[in-house]
Amino acid sequence: MKKSSEGLGASISEMLDTEYRGVSLYTVAMMLLVIAILWTGVSVVEQIQTYHQQYGELQKLKKQFRHLQMEHQRMLIEQQTFSATPQVTNRAVTELNMFYPNLSDRMIIHDNKVTVFTSDASSNESNTPAINPETQH
After folding, report:
1. InterPro entries from the entry (predicted)?
2. Does pLDDT of 9 surpass 70?
3. pTM > 0.70
4. Composition of the chain by helix, strand, coil, percent to 5
C-alpha cells in the first residue's frame, strides 16, 4: 500500500513538473490559486464596505425615527393642550378677534319667522318676532 500511495504522489508531482510549451503546470495551478485568493479577498472587502454603509444609513434612520417620535409626542401633547375649551376661547379672542355675541346680536330663524333676542326680551323671557318675511316686499 505504501508503494501505491507513493506512486500516486510521484505521478502527481511528475505531472505538475511537466512543461507544456514552456509553462509548468505547477506554475499555472499556483497562479489560479493566487487569483482565486485575491478575488475572494476583494469580495470580502466589498461586502464589508457595503455592510458599513448600510449600517451607517440604518443608524441615521433610527436617529431620524426617534426624532420624529419625539416630535409626534410633542404634537399630541400640544393638541391636547389646545383642545381644552379655555385655551380655544383664549386663542379665538386674542388671535382671531372673535367674541361671544350679545343677546341683541343673536338671531334664531324658524321656518318663515325671524326672532331677534334683545336685552328687553331676555328679561321678559318671551321671544317676540321682529320681522316676518311674508309681510315685507
Report:
1. Cell_div_FtsL
2. no
3. no
4. 70, 10, 20
